[in-house]
Amino acid sequence: MNVAICDDNTDIHVQLHNLLSEFSHQYEQEIKVLDFMNAQEVLDYIKTEKTAKIDLLLLDIEMDGLDGITLNQYLLKNNKISWIVYISNFVERMSEAFSEKTLGFISKPIDKEKLFIKVLEVSKKFTQSNLKITIKDIHDTVHTLYLENIEYFEALRGYTKIHLFPQAEMIIHQSFTETIGQFQQLPIYICHRSYAIVLSKVKKMTWKDVTLLSNTKIPLARKKYQELQRVYLDYMENG
């Protein structure tokens, strides 16, 4: 696994190197670490054609010059970096960091167990990217769904509509509750009596709706905003 560190503090680099080395020995997984001291170095790297793909970027938010949030906008247009975990105390800026590449955040000082959780999550994503389920729609047509593509569920009367990222959907002859129970492998949150979202597909949220990566807006039930914030932050930090 290729892991990159982008932080303007050399002490953070040293600490992360030591922790990643410990992870490598504990889980018997080879890790190659790349170091960047600022966002521009990351941009230069991804623009170079022959450089290796980065599986996980550990990215500081607050840096001189281009910050981590702005860098993320460039990374979305490039497939050289698969996943991003923010290393920062600026939790209040996490809403700006929502993207399909954002896997979560770790507060400073860095907690070893939380770092290990995120590295393991990336490792599992590569093995789980092919996880799929076979399911019939209301016309008895059999579909193979890749779990990583499911964005949200919509309750219909006696049926459930499954929405896939970026733009696909299917209706199954199964109740909303039964369907949610069938997909327990996914980080699902029931945000409304008729909707359940996959937390990894959240782009931003307000007190009245949730915007997903496809830019679909899902209604948020009254009084659920604070609960969703807590659940989402816990998911982002702890997986």
Q: Would you spell out the secondary-structure blueprint of this structure?
A:
Elements: E1 2-6, H1 10-27, E2 32-36, H2 39-47, E3 54-60, H3 68-75, E4 81-87, E5 102-106, H4 112-128, E6 132-136, E7 142-146, E8 150-156, E9 159-164, E10 168-172, H5 176-182, E11 188-192, E12 195-198, E13 202-205, E14 209-212, E15 217-219, H6 225-238
Parallel strand pairs: 1-2, 1-3, 3-4, 4-5
Antiparallel strand pairs: 6-7, 8-9, 8-12, 9-10, 11-12, 13-14, 14-15
Helix pairs in contact: 2-3
Keywords: Phosphoprotein
GO molecular function, one term: DNA binding
Domain Response regulatory: 2-123
What does this structure look like?
This protein has 239 residues and is an alpha/beta fold. It folds into 2 domains: 2-128, 3-Layer(aba) Sandwich (Rossmann fold), CATH 3.40.50.2300; 132-238, Beta Barrel (OB fold (Dihydrolipoamide Acetyltransferase, E2P)). It is 31% helix and 32% strand. The protein has helices at residues 10-27, 39-47, 68-75, 112-128, 176-182, 225-238, and strands at 2-6, 32-36, 54-60, 81-87, 102-106, 132-136, 142-146, 150-156, 159-164, 168-172, 188-192, 195-198, 202-205, 209-212, 217-219. The strands form 4 sheets. A 5-stranded parallel beta sheet has the order 2-1-3-4-5, sandwiched between helices. Helix 2 packs parallel to helix 3. The radius of gyration is 19 Å and the shape is globular. The mean pLDDT is 89. One of its GO terms (molecular function) is DNA binding. Pfam families: LytTR, Response_reg. Residues 2-123 form the Response regulatory domain.
